[in-house]
Amino acid sequence: IYKVPSTEAEALASNLMGMFKFDLGQDVIDFTGHALALYR
Questions:
Q1: Residue ranges covered by each domain of the chain
Q2: Which of 13, 16, 22, 38 is the most exposed place for a label (fewest CB within 10 A)?
Q3: Is the entire prediction scored with pTM above 0.70?
């Protein structure tokens, strides 16, 4: 379970995704899918 970054600073400090990481691992794909599903 990962915390979804809620501010720009948290997003930049998170090690879940790099700025230029195009080869996404399964954990990043799962995290992004869950974040989008929970977004209101």
A1: 8-38
A2: 22
A3: no
